[in-house]
């Protein structure tokens, strides 16, 4: 068994949750905030049998779209006035950690 910790952009959350539920996967969702952009994310905790990991990763890949956005980033340090500069960044997609599970108990 594996534990997948998946971090996705909030914009993709409804689509992803619908698709993984349709496919028979279960998830515990946590509302989280990214550190760099301070925008909303959704973190999913999913216990999955080893032979289903690739299927779940494919679903995530198909439903977590990457896109470019223009944003302004303000420096988070110093007392001097520094103007924000527009920066093109890539948002979306998914960050997935796959961990081995030694034991699983459902009580």
The number of helical segments is: 2
Structural class: alpha+beta
The end-to-end span amounts to 17 Å
CATH fold description:
Alpha-Beta Plaits
Helix content: 10-25%
Detail the poorly predicted runs.
none
Rg (C-alpha, Å):
17 Å
Q: Give the percentage of residues in beta strands.
A: 35-45%
What does this structure look like?
- By secondary structure, the protein is an alpha+beta fold.
- It has one domain (2-100): Alpha-Beta Plaits, CATH 3.30.70.120.
- It is built from two helices and six strands.
- Strands 2-3-1-6 form a four-stranded antiparallel beta sheet, covered by helices on one side. The protein has a two-stranded antiparallel sheet with strand order 4-5.
- Strand 2 and strand 3 form a beta hairpin.
- Helix 1 (13-22) packs antiparallel against helix 2.
- It starts with a strand and ends in a 7-residue tail after the last strand.
Summarize the structure.
This protein has 107 residues and is of the alpha+beta class. It has two helices and six strands; from the N terminus they run βαββαβββ. The strands form two sheets. It has a four-stranded antiparallel beta sheet with strand order 2-3-1-6, with helices on one face.
């Amino acid at each position: 068994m594996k534990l997948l910790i998946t971090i996705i952009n909030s914009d993709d959350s409804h689509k992803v949750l619908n698709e993984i539920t349709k496919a028979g996967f279960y998830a515990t969702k946590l509302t989280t905030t990214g550190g760099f952009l301070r925008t909303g994310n959704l973190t999913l905790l999913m216990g999955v049998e080893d032979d289903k990991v690739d299927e779940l990763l494919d679903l995530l890949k198909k439903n977590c779209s990457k896109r470019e956005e223009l944003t302004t980033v303000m420096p988070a340090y110093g007392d001097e006035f520094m103007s924000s500069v527009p920066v093109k960044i890539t948002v979306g997609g998914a960050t997935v950690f796959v961990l081995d599970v030694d034991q699983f108990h459902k009580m």
